[in-house]
Structures are given as C-alpha cells and as structure tokens.
Amino acid sequence: MDVDAGHGAALGGALPTQPGELPLTRRLRSLLAWPGAETDPVSHLVRTHRGIHSGADPAVLRRAYTIAETMHRGQFRKSGEPYITHPLAVAQICADLGMDTTTLVAALLHDTVEDTRYTLQALADDFGPEVAHLVDGVTKFDKAFYGKAAEAETIRKMIIAAGKDVRVLIIKLADRLHNMRTLGVRSAASRERIARKTEEVLIPLCDRLGIQTLKRELDDVVLLHLHPEEHARIARHVHDRPGWDAYLAEVVAQARVALRRNRVDAAVSPRPRHLYSIWKDTVAGGHSAPYDLPRIAVVVDGPATDCYAALGAIHGLWRPVPGRFKDYIASPKNNLYRSLHTSVCGPKNRTVEVLIRTEEMHRSAEYGIAANYRFPRAGGDAAARAEQLAWLHRVLGWEQDAADPAQFLQSLRSDLAEAQIQVFADGRQVVLPAGATPVDLAYELGTERGDHCLAARINGRLAPLSSELEDGDVVEIFTENDADNGFEAEAAPRGPRKEWLRFVKSPHAQMQINRWFAEHTEPGISISDKVRLGRATIGLALRQHNRGLASDLPLLRLAEELGYPDLETLLVAVFDRVIAPDEVVRQLIDLVDHRQ
Known about the structure:
The chain folds into three domains: 5-237, Orthogonal Bundle (Hypothetical protein af1432), CATH 1.10.3210.10; 242-375, Beta Polymerase, domain 2 (2-Layer Sandwich); 390-595, Roll (Ubiquitin-like (UB roll)). It has 29 helices and 13 strands. The chain is of the alpha+beta class. The longest helix has 22 residues, at 188-209.
C-alpha cells in the first residue's frame, strides 16, 4: 500500500497540495514529472522482465497496467505525482529482483482493490485466483471499521496469506521500499513512525527471506530517517575515504594472483559495506570514528569444496586474524545464507575482510527466496524453499494461539527482533530465539512435551529449566511421564509452572503457557505435587551417575544434614530450585559412599 497516497476527485477526496503551491501548479508539475508522459510507461518494465525471463508475455503486463492506470486516474501521491507511478515502481522493483509475471501483474494492481472501485472478484475474473490472492494478501483493513486493530489485523492477514504464497511478502517489501524512497514529502512525525515500523517488522522479514539486495537499501533509508545526523556522518566518511579505491584494487589484484597459483577459478571484487552496516558496527564496537574495514568477495566457479581451496589460498597469502573465521557453508544461517567469512592482515598490515562463496551461494545471498524465481531450476527447489520458509510456518503455528491480532503483532515483533540459535534435539536441528531455554525447546517439540516438561540435559549434563541455551547445544527433554526413577508416580501430570513465564523467550512457549492457565481454573501447584516432582527430578539426576535409591533413608539423612526440618521440605526446595538437583545428588552420593 502507498503510505504517501492522496485520493483525487475521482474518489471524492480533496487534492493535497504542498505548502505554498497552487493545485493547478501541482497538477502541471506532476504531469511533466511523470516518466510515462512522453514514452510508453511500461516499456522499461517489460525490457527488464524479458531480460531475465525471455519467454514472458508482455501483453498481460500491459493489460494490468492499463486497468491500474484507469482505476487510479485522478489520484495523486503527496509528492504530486500521478498515483499510477507508485504501483509501476513497485512492479519495477519486483522485476529487478527477477520475479515472475504473476508477481509483476499483482504488483501493478496491488492497490486497486483497496483504493479504487475495482473489486477482488473482478480482479480474479480478469487475471485469475493466483493474482487475486497476492493482491488480497497486501490489501489493508479499513481503519474506519477496524480502528486501532487495523494494523495488527493487516499484518496478521499478510502473514497468513504469505504462508500460502510467499510472493505476498515480496510485493509488500517492494511496496514499502518505494514508499521509503519517497518518504521525504511526509511530515517529520510520519517519517519517524513509518521508518520505525519498517525497522521493527519489514526489515527483519526481508532478512528472514534472505533478500539482501532489498534489505541494504531499506536499512540505509531507515537510518536516514531515524538518525539523519549519523547517516550524514557515515555518508561523508564513505565519500572522503583517502586511497580507499587504490588500496582495494591492490588487494583484489594480489588475491587473484594467489588464487591462480593455487588453481582456483574465481572472480574477485571489492565488497563495500552499506551505510547502515558501517553505522551498526561503529555503534556496537563503541568506536568514535566510523568502523569500516576493507572487504572483498571471492566467488568461485565450481563446487563448495573449491571455497575451502580459495580459503587456503587467501590464508597462504595473508595471515588470518584469530577468532575472525566463520563457516556458514557447513552451518548456514537460518535464512540459508552460505559463505566463508575470514579476516586477514592484508597489504600494509591493514585488516581486510574476505567473503568466499560459490556463484549459486552468491545469488542466494543477494536474492534469497526470490532467487527461486530469478534463477528457476529443475528439481531440488521445493525442499530448499520449504527449509527457507520454516520460520514462517513456525510463526503460523503460534499465530493460531494468539488471543487477538495485537498480541500476535507484538509477538511477531519480538520474534523478529531476536537473534536466533540452532540446537539439536530428538535427532534434528531446532531454531530458537537467542536466550531460549529448555522450556522453549520443549514447546517447540510439541505442546504436550512443553506442558509436562520436568528436566533437561544440555550436552550430557542435567541443567535447570531456566538455563539459556547456546548455539550448537545438544539437548534432551524429560517430561513427567519420562521420569522412570524408581519412585511410583502418585498423580497425573499437572502441567506448566507460572514461573516459566519469567524466563521463556519464544512467543509460542509464552502463548502455550498462558493458554494452559487460561483453560485450568484450579489453584497453583500443590505442595504434594511439588514433593512428587522434586523426587522425580532427583531420580533423573541420579540416573546421570547410574545410581538409584532403594529407600528414602539416605534422603532423610541428607535433609537433616542440610538443615531441612523434613524430607518433604527438601524435595519442595529442589522443585523450587532453592537448591540445585546436581548439588543434592553430589552430596547424597558422598553421604551414601561415606557411610558404606
């Protein structure tokens, strides 16, 4: 949708004007500025599209443009341009990405249902249900009807539609990118509000889709509107860097020679950072001056194994910087980004960053999910695309548990804002937000596993349920039903504990815990349940040492030695984590072995 849109007389609205400008002047200026005034407005779009998809039919694009132009006639943007310039620009962004004809048609028509008399049914009749689904997915809910819930309802609807066809999100990102490019005509308050929403939701969505070619520009324009002084400072730095181009040329030349000597066929080119990336690293590192290291990209013409050969050539030429190597080929990022990252002491002893990847990896890094449309290949794409959209299906899973759209939007923002980690459980890789705990993992493995989670083993050691997991951890989850610890279960599992809400990170876990307590009206967990579960926890900890208890006598002795009035109080303390189960078991084993 166009956040800059102003409706003309065709829809009964007043024509907006810029300060001090007469309506007639604005109309004349806009007509003169319209790129389609003297040439075919669709020709550039068609050329771009057919340059990537040579067999595409331009007739359907021209028909979609004609309908869009007719429907939007009389509407103007706040910049004074005819409204049709916006959907045409959105379609051009999609064409530059290499999207298919269906996406471009939907982009041209994406605002017609919302802003004109053109109905969704008419659109479906004219262009088919696929285009209608894409347009409906990016059509906003009416604020007059939905009030404050309109934004949350719209995003929820868009995510659900994207679950069926991810091209909904690509059109939305292109729509927002063009709006951000033309945000300067808005008031300062509007610019900040729109930029903030872009930063919170759409840029993370773009990152999850892996479309870096869009994300870089969105990042920079958000920096411009939220931190204009910092944007100007970084831009001056980039413009004024003395000897930068000559130094990079020297680095590239030396790298090419080293690769040829090692018989690695690869293209080497400078890979400068965009403004936001420089600013982020500057702030994160607490640097007073812009922190901007020279960087090159090595794109090998061959299989992934050639990337490691290229890495050897680069490290043979320049000494690697310790701790600065990352292998995203063996362990891809969650958006399937793959590359080798290293830093070396380059010419003149300056630190140089090096990215090494195959041509296919490079395409995927630039275009993400859009690469499936720009570079269609036979076979193998379905599985990769499903893996690339696993996060979206996870969001759709907990979307159904959201009590209302506002809760869903807040949870989505939190989920997108979090960094992610990957852990291993039940023989598979599981993606969780950074700082997640075994309880988050248990709910990710299944609602029943989460509700009845009792204990966890992290990398072979029993750990509190509140423990923060780290990337690469191997985790085992034990439920109340798994507690085969030599003691008889006295009652059915009682479900989650409210204190879990203080440390769980994932929206899914939070919603499921709240759901359980909303559905169960009985008071909090009883003392007898705490005793039972504390006993089960000790049983699990004893199994770590291949030990067990034939009676309660050793526990009674330990409770007395630790100063507890009785065994039940000790077991409640274990349940409430006043004392760690591992500590109880250590002292228990010492006590038993010493008495023997």
